[in-house]
Amino acid sequence: MSATLTILGMAVITFVVKALVFILGDRVVFSPNLKLALGFVPVTVLTAIIVPMVLAPHGQGLELSWRNPQLVAAVFAVLLCAVTRHQLLTILSGLLVFFGWQYLVG
């Protein structure tokens, strides 16, 4: 029952926050510094989600070895993206390296 109440509470809070954006519209003006800071939020959140999954894929401590397919694919993808700046190529190559490495080593 508490899980249901928690989910309903999160849904209400999410709805209220999104509704306030539409209701207030252009009446709320953000400073340039706040706009700049908010621009980093997606990158920060994505990093906070991905890094633990790459470094500790089983949730039981760091797995910093060549046998970790997530780590190998992530390093490959970072290097490829730094060189090519091509997002789709990076995503597809990272997936191919991940599944290939998992097949070969796993």
Overall description:
With 106 residues, the chain is mainly α. Helix content is 75%, strand content 0%. The chain contains 5 helices and no strands. It has helices at 2-24, 32-38, 41-55, 69-84, 87-105. Helix 4 (69-84) packs antiparallel against helix 5 (87-105). The longest helix has 23 residues, at 2-24. The protein is extended. The chain starts with a helix and ends with a helix.
Secondary structure tally: strands: 0
Q: Number of helical runs?
A: 5
Radius of gyration: 20 Å
> Main β-sheet, in a few words?
none
The CA-CA distance between the termini, in Å, is 40 Å
Give the overall pLDDT as a whole number.
93
Low-confidence stretches: none
Q: How much strand content do the residues show? A: under 5%
Structural class: mainly alpha
Helicity range of the residues? Answer: over 70%
Order of helix and strand elements from N to C terminus: HHHHH
Coarse morphology: extended
